[in-house]
Amino acid sequence: MLTATSAWAQPWRDSLNHARSLYQKGNYKEALKYYKSADRLAPNDVDLSEEKGQSAYRAGDYKAAEEAFHTAASRQTDQKRKSSAYNNLGNARMKQKDYGGAEEAFKESLRLNPSNEKARQRLAEVKRLKKEQEEKEKEQQQKGEDNQEQNEGGDQPKDEQKKPSDGQGQQKKNSSSQKPGESNKSENQQQKQQQQKGSSSNGQKLADKQTERKLDELMRQEMDAKKRLDGSKGKSNGAKAKKDW
Asked: pTM surpassing 0.70?
């Protein structure tokens, strides 16, 4: 006659045995279902997380495998078995491309068992993959920034957007080629030249006015002389005519 304890214990053992049988046959997905059932029904002192994690990993359910291996690593008290659980945890994370998390798991595995060569090899591999992932992310980020700049600039090429016009470029070139102080010096010279031009222009205007006045004076003198000459001729002619008359 079955006792209450044996009747309660039988279902989880049947599930476990069936799960192990399916695992041996390579039917990992079905095995995982029975492992989950057995683990749920098993007593608290029975740990099936390691077997459940192996079945989930081989079935391709890497998230379930990660959870199972993490539980196994937290429950194990033996250093070597704990190191093995962390190594399996790192493998499950690598499959999910969580290279940072995998790296931490492999490091913990080596800390617990420095002679774990599998964890050492996997650590070197995950470091390489992590570096490649970071470089790819940087390239994608750079491409995104370049595309954003092109969209903001419209159809105009990037080089032409930044290229100044010839006048602006020459002006910037001239201003950048000047030494400190030359700019102020050049401005002062320009002001002096403008003042000199203004003075010479004013002097020229004064000289022209003086010349005009002299010419007017000479013309008046000439006119006066001509009038006097004409007047004297008229008197002589008039006397002669009177005499002839």
From this structure: no
